Each structure stands twice: as structure tokens, then as C-alpha cells.
Amino acid sequence: HQVSRCYLHDFGIEREPDVTAKKISVYEVGSPEHRREKWQKRRAKAETDPNYFLSQLWSNAKVNAPKRSLEFSLDPIDMGFLIEFQDWKCAFSGRPFSLETGSPDRPSMDRIDNNLGYVASNLHFVTVEVNYMKGEMSYADFVARSKEIALNCG
Questions:
Q1: 126: phi then psi, degrees, rounded to nearest 5
Q2: Neighbours of 139 (CB within 10 A)
């Protein structure tokens, strides 16, 4: 969009608008199309930049913790150390993580004790698929249930 001369004049600016300014998006800022374009760029960056992906996980947890009445005292650097300590593999299955959107092997933060909040000592990383299967079960209950299933199907 070009800023009109009269609009600038309303603010006491007496010059022609800069028509060489870089256009960020072809869509109106705030429009559904603009939001979709912005979301697609973020998703693409999260699939290729592990630090960006972890920062998004951290931000989501920080926003959602108070809504769920959970403590949040997690530092983004702690998250990086934790996932590196796990060698970018699921704490339960040992499967390597994938940052690809929609992958069942995408990293997900799991609270070891669901009664506690997002604190470094209560977290580990698991795949989205494993976190979905675990649900609200405790660590011990999930491991016991998984062993039962493996024995029954094995």
C-alpha cells in the first residue's frame, strides 16, 4: 500500500511517501490471507531451525501454563540442554525427532508428573505420538501399560 501525501500531511510531514520501501506482503496486514502467509513462513522456519522450533514450544507452554493453572519457570536454554542431553530422541521410545510438520516424531514437551508445572526437573521430550498415547497417565503408569501391551502383542 502506498501512503498518500494527504495522510502524511495530517501528521505534519511535508514530503512525498517513500515508494521504494520493501513490500512485506501482498495482502492487507491483519487479513486472513496475511495471517496465513505469516503462519506458513513460521512453520517453514520451525521445520528447518531447531532453535526456532524450541522457542515456539517454549512460547506456547508459557502462554498455556497459566490457563491450566500450572507453574511455569522454564528457561529456553534449559529446553535446549534437555533435548541435547536426550540426543534429539524420544525419552520413551528412543526414536529420533523430526521437525517436519505433521510428523508423529515431532518433539513434544511432556511433564513427568502431571500435577506439577513446566519446570526443568519435571520435563522431558517425547514424540507427539507418544505424548498423545500417554495422555494424563503418570510416567510409571504409562511404562507399565506399555509393557502390558508389548507382552500381550509380542
A1: -135, 170
A2: 16
Q: What is the DSSP letter of 124?
A: E
| Residues shown for the chain | 154
Q: Cα separation of 131 and 138, whole Å? A: 11
Determine the Cα–Cα distance for residues 53 and 70; give it in Å rounded to an integer. Answer: 22
DSSP structural state of residue 143 = H
Report the C-alpha gap between 92 and 19 in whole angstroms: 56
Splitting the chain (154 residues) into consecutive groups of 10 residues, what average pLDDT does each group show? 43 51 60 83 87 92 95 92 95 96 95 92 96 92 94 88
Count of C-beta atoms within a 10 Å radius of residue 82: 18
Whether the model pTM is above 0.85 = no
Burial (0-12, 13-18, 19+ Cβ within 10 Å), 87 = exposed
| Cβ-contact 54, 79 below 8 angstroms | yes
